[in-house]
Amino acid sequence: MAWSVRALAVNQYTDSSFDTCVYKGVDYCTNYNMTMGEYSLTTFEVPTERFWLWCGMVFMAAAYEFSTFLSCVALEYHRYGSPENVTLDPVNKDSSSEEYGLMNTPRSLLNEAVVSVAPDREKHFIPVTIAFKDLWYTVPDPANPKDTIDVLKGISGYALPGTITALMGSSGA
C-alpha cells in the first residue's frame, strides 16, 4: 500500500502545476532551494524522482498477480468438505413422543392411554379475495367537529387471502 501512496504522491507533486518556484505567495526556490512539489515530497521523506512512479506501478501489478495466484491455489487445493450430518438416536425409543406438545407422564402398568393434543389442521374459514374501488374514508375534524377530513380519497385495490393489507393515509393513520 505504501508503494501505491508513494507513486500517487510522486505523480501529483511532480506535475507542472506544482513544479514552480512561487506557489500561493511563497517562494520555495529562494527559501528552500527547491520547487514547491519537491519541497512537499521531501517534507514527508518521499523520493522526488519519477522513477518511483513506475516502480510503484510495477510493484502494484506484481502484487495483484501474486495475490491472484495465491487465491487460485487456495481455491483449487484447499477445499472444505461438506459437513457431516449428525443424527442422535434416542436412548429409549419407547418413551419418545412424535406429537408436538404431548407431555410424558409417569407410565402405569395397567391402563396406558395416549391422547393426541396436536392442533386441528382443518381451516374454519373460507379464503376470500376482497376488491374495492373508489374508497373514501372521512373522520371528524378535531379542530372543528362540524367539518370532516378525508383520510382516504378514491382508493382502489384488492386484498388476497393469506396476506395482510392495510389502508393508511399519508400520515400512516
Any overview of this molecule?
Keywords: Transport. Strand 1 (22-23) and strand 2 (26-27) form a beta hairpin. A two-stranded antiparallel sheet has the order 1-2. The longest helix has 27 residues, at 51-77. Helix content is 30%, strand content 16%. The chain has 173 residues and is an alpha+beta fold. It has helices at 2-13, 28-32, 36-43, 51-77, and strands at 22-23, 26-27, 130-140, 148-159. The radius of gyration is 39 Å and the shape is flat. The protein has four helices and four strands; from the N terminus they run H-E-E-H-H-H-E-E. Among the domains are: 2-76, no CATH class; 130-159, no CATH class. The mean pLDDT is 78.
For the largest beta-sheet, the strand count, sense and barrel status come to:
2 strands, antiparallel
Radius of gyration: 39 Å
The oligomeric status of these chains comes to single chain
> Could you estimate the helical fraction of the residues in percent?
25-40%
What share of residues are in beta strands?
15-25%
H-E order: HEEHHHEE
Distance between the termini: 54 Å
Overall 3D geometry?
flat
DSSP E strands, number? 4
| Structural class label | alpha+beta
* Overall residue-averaged pLDDT value: 78
Output the number of helix runs: 4
Placed side by side, the strands forming the largest sheet appear as: 1-2
Low-confidence stretches: none
Keywords: Transport
Record the SSE blueprint.
Layout: H1 2-13, E1 22-23, E2 26-27, H2 28-32, H3 36-43, H4 51-77, E3 130-140, E4 148-159
Antiparallel strand pairs: 1-2, 3-4
Keywords: Transport
